[in-house]
Structures are given as structure tokens and as C-alpha cells.
Specification:
The protein has 138 residues and is an alpha+beta fold. It is built from 2 helices and 8 strands; from the N terminus they run E-E-H-E-E-E-E-H-E-E.
Length: 138
């Protein structure tokens, strides 16, 4: 079976960056983040406060169908997560991630000091079959 990347120049469908905080992100942090939305509104204009057991706020750049091509989620205990589903190249993606997470961490740090303990990165690659074969052992 033959495969080719989902894009003409790469196979990356999405990347997810997660930064675990040294402390719980509480309702005071969420309110401070909502108040600071103007600081990153150009990259993430949509704001959402989803129903959750733990305080959480989401900032996103949404497609016309409502799905997020970029999403910053803060909360869910003590995490800052950025999902990019419109991957171009590392330099462009990392520049946005660094900027929006930097702002979010600074805002929460002003509420009560915190540090980042465990950064992680997940990359999802997608390929298309270029043949009609259905078995993967060829």
C-alpha cells in the first residue's frame, strides 16, 4: 500500500502543547484571563467558559463550522493547553504558542505565583492511501 502526507509538504494534522502548572488554576485565575483577553484577541478572538467540574476558560480561532483551528485552554486543574489544527510550519506555530501561553502564565502568575513543571508535545500525522489496496501488509 502506498501513502502520501495529508498536505503537499507535511503530514502534520495537529499539534497539542500542554504545560502543567505548579498549582491549581482557580476561578480568580479564570476571571483574570477573561479580563486579559484583549492581550491575545488578535490570535484567539473567541472566548468560551465551558461547563466543567474544574474552572476552565477557552480562547479560540474558530472556522465557519464552529470547530477550532487554534485553541488555548486554561484550567482543568493546572494546565495550559494549546491545540493547533491548522499546522503550517514549526516557526509560525511555536511563535503563536509561546506568545499566548506566555500571556496566560503571566496573567495567572500575577494572581498567585506559579511555575511550569511539565511541558509536553503531541503531534498527529495523517497520511492518505494512494492505492485501492485494503491490506496493510504489502
Amino acid at each position: 500500500m502506498q501513502f502520501k502526507p495529508i498536505s503537499d509538504d507535511h503530514a502534520v494534522e495537529s499539534v497539542v502543547f500542554t504545560f502543567v502548572s505548579s498549582r491549581f488554576i482557580d476561578i480568580d485565575d479564570i476571571q483574570a484571563l477573561v479580563n486579559a483577553h484583549d492581550r491575545f484577541r488578535a490570535d484567539l478572538p473567541a472566548l468560551n467558559l465551558p461547563n466543567s467540574d474544574a474552572p476552565v476558560v477557552e480562547f479560540a480561532y474558530r472556522r465557519p463550522d464552529g470547530s477550532a483551528s487554534w485553541l488555548l485552554r486554561c484550567g482543568n486543574g493546572g494546565e495550559f493547553t494549546v491545540e493547533c489544527r491548522r499546522y503550517t510550519r514549526w516557526d509560525r506555530v511555536w511563535k503563536v504558542v509561546r506568545a499566548v501561553v506566555g500571556i496566560a502564565v503571566d496573567v495567572c502568575n500575577a494572581v498567585r505565583p506559579l511555575s511550569i513543571l511539565a511541558p509536553s508535545l503531541r503531534v498527529v500525522d495523517r497520511f492518505r492511501s494512494t492505492s485501492d489496496e485494503t491490506h496493510l501488509d504489502s
